[in-house]
Specification:
Layout lengths: L1 E2 L22 E2 L7 H4 L3 H14 L7 E4 L5 H12 L3 E6 L5 H6 L4 E4 L5 H8 L5 E6 L5 H8 E9 L12 H7 L2 E4 L2 H5 L2 H17 L6 E6 L3 H9 L6 E7 L11 E4 L2 E4 L7 E5 L20 H9 L5 E3 L2 E3 L2 E3 L6 E5 L6 E6 L3 H19 L3 H34 L43
């Protein structure tokens, strides 16, 4: 299962082993794909499909200018243009990536810092120009793209990589009757009918082999900082994928289902426990964890219950003038967990009167602070830094301790039951593993829907 990036990255974060995403943004990928490739599908292909096929109505013989062509969306656009029988014209700043773009299917490559874009497009199209331009850069180059466009052409802008303003190319637009259109991917995925057509198009293209996802480099999850640096270097061709190993203390058989938040995930075939997540716009792909028939049946359910963080914490006071005090009003605000989207606590909302009290306290504090000496202020800031340093040491110690616990291999008693779920240290009456029937799925009675 993969995700289509039609949701807010601020609300639904995916840098983690377990994530919550809208069920409508999930899609099952073809079984022929590797997990890493499955993670790299939907953002580039749905973006390129929505612009070229759904919006511009791509037809055979169309000349298509694809700027920033070495990006994942750029390569997807090349493949979609080629599949439709169009002429793909890839642009890149220098010739360094020319060979790679040609090997990935571009019919023509123009290095914009070394060649004249308008002249090259006119030469390739026999003087007609490009009917479709697909551009994530914008900026001052927009006027050049308008000059290279064919009469009645369409320029689709889906990004703003350039730091400079984007002037409107008035004279080419009026003289040629051009259409300049902004395109966001949520426009497509928010429409169920259009989104379904896009999914079907991509899945059929993957099955036929006309669409082939490309991975620039794969990083382990603990090397995600290196993945960011690699992306910022602009050296990559296509997608960067981050993989992580997921080892929950439960097991699900192939084809069986369990639920995490609003998503129902079906166990995949195979013993691998690698779960790739797409870098940039991310895809959640859940694969079957290794089966452990010796694990206590209730472990997976209790683990997921604990991991949901459904512990309510209420803070009904406000901090004013150096002390926690009761607010003037009794209204509260729910604190929503980004993992479960459930309330995990409440805080006092405060009133206008509380704000006035806080402002007056701040004024009094400023008057006294303004009379302190320079050394007094330095000492005060030093004490604040010391308090933060102490807090940092405390949290670091806890983090290291928890990491060490997670890295330890579970010890087993003589019956083979994991010690994290078994409190018996001697005289265990449970049958040994040698006498326990072998099973491919979770033990009898295991909870698979939480």
């Amino acid at each position: 299962m993969s995700t289509i990036p039609g949701f807010s990255m601020n609300r639904y974060g995916v840098y983690g082993e377990e994530t919550i995403i809208p069920a409508a943004m999930t899609v099952t990928h073809p079984n022929s794909l590797r997990w890493e490739h499955a993670a790299a599908i939907w953002m580039p292909y749905m973006t390129a499909y929505g612009a070229l096929v759904d919006t511009a109505l791509l037809t055979p013989g169309d000349a298509v200018i694809i700027t920033a062509a070495s990006s994942s969306v750029g390569l997807a656009a090349i493949q979609i243009a080629n599949a439709a029988g169009a002429v793909s014209i890839a642009t890149t700043r220098t010739s360094a990536k020319r060979g790679a773009l040609l090997s990935h299917g571009a019919h023509h490559v123009i290095a914009t810092q070394e060649q004249n874009l308008v002249e090259e497009v006119k030469r390739i199209t026999g003087g007609k120009g490009a009917r479709i331009t697909f551009d994530p850069v914008a900026g001052e180059a927009g006027e050049t793209l308008a000059e290279a466009a064919a009469p009645g052409g369409i320029i689709i802008l889906y990004g703003a990589l350039a730091s400079s303003p984007t002037p409107f190319p008035l004279f080419p637009a009026v003289g040629k009757g051009l259409t300049l259109r902004g395109y966001p991917l949520p426009e497509l995925v928010a429409n169920p009918e259009r989104s379904a057509k896009g999914k079907q198009y991509v899945l059929e293209g993957l099955e036929s082999g006309k669409l082939k996802p490309v991975i620039a480099k794969t990083f382990a999850f603990d090397k995600i900082v290196d993945a960011h640096r690699f992306m910022e270097s602009n050296e990559q061709i296509d997608k960067i994928v981050v993989t992580l190993t997921r080892r929950p203390p439960g097991a699900w058989a192939a084809g069986e289902e369990y639920r995490t938040g609003p998503i129902r995930v079906r166990g995949a075939l195979g013993q691998s426990n690698q779960k790739p997540i797409e870098f940039g716009w991310h895809a959640l792909i859940v694969q079957r964890p290794p089966v452990n028939p010796g694990l206590q049946p209730t472990a997976s359910a209790s683990y997921l219950r604990r991991s949901r963080g459904d512990v309510m914490r209420d803070y009904r006071q406000v901090y004013i003038d150096g002390a926690w005090v009761d607010p003037q009003g009794g209204d509260t605000i729910d604190v929503i967990s980004p993992v479960t989207e459930r309330p995990v606590g409440q805080i006092a909302s405060g009133t206008a009167g509380d704000v006035d009290r806080a402002v007056e306290a701040a004024r009094r504090a400023f008057r006294s602070y303004s009379r302190t000496t320079r050394q007094g202020r330095i000492d005060l800031l030093g004490s604040v830094l010391a308090a933060y340093a102490k807090r940092h040491r405390t949290w670091r110690t806890r983090s290291l301790r928890n990491s060490a616990r997670r890295r330890r291999s579970p010890k087993t008693c003589r019956s083979g039951w994991a010690s994290v779920t078994c409190r018996r240290r001697s005289r265990c009456s449970r049958p040994t593993l040698s006498s326990t029937p072998k099973v491919d799925g979770p033990p009898s009675g295991a909870s698979q829907s939480v």
